[in-house]
Amino acid sequence: MKNTVLECNAKKRWNLLLAVSIFICLYSVYLCFVVDPFVDNLTGLGYVHHHFFLMLSYTLLISFDSIFLSNLLFKKYSFPNAKRYQIGLIGGWVLMCIGVLIPWQEKTSSAQLDLHSLLCTISSIFMSGLWLRLYTNPFSYGKFKTIIFFELLAILCGILWIAFCGSISLMSEISYVCLNIIVLTFAQYPTNHQ
After folding, report:
1. Distance in Å from the first CA to the final CA of the chain
2. How does DSSP assign 67-82, residue by residue?
3. How far lies 186's CA from each of 90, 139, 181, in Å?
4. Are 100 and 43 in contact (CB under 8 A)?
5. Considering Cα of 99, then 101, then 106, then 109, what sign does the dihedral take?
6. How far apart are CA 53 and CA 65, in angstroms?
7. What's the whole-number average pLDDT of the chain?
8. E-assigned strands of the chain?
9. Does residue 30 register a pLDDT over 80?
């Protein structure tokens, strides 16, 4: 009886996580119709095209969801120093949020633009490095290592879009965001022994 209740709760939680992931992906597609996804990016969406609420809500939503899903992943596949990685990813997403939300437009000072670029670049490299370090961690094996591998593929996909567009475009940002959230959501799929 207890196992049946736990399985039911796990399925309900997963259905909710899946619904949030689908919403974020649809939100991402919607943003592609608001601005040119191959030219503009999230910061440009808010400060150049004056869709500040869309930029703010999307940035906060993807950050909180990614942090939440990462924490669930580390709880599910517990290993030594997992807390350190959790704190590192939280710090990376917070830096990313601050970087995106720094005003960036023609009237903005070059110092703000430099700080925007610096924070976004540092957070991206830092979080990519954390996932790579996790992949090479001796405690990473089996399904957990496979999840991290797909997370690294999501990062690579974002980088390839940057190369294709010639800049950090909305397409490169949302391709990473959607793949990241899909990978982390499916990592929570309930199994029979949960």
Report:
1. 14
2. HHHHHHHHHHT--TTH
3. 20, 21, 8
4. yes
5. negative
6. 18
7. 86
8. none
9. yes
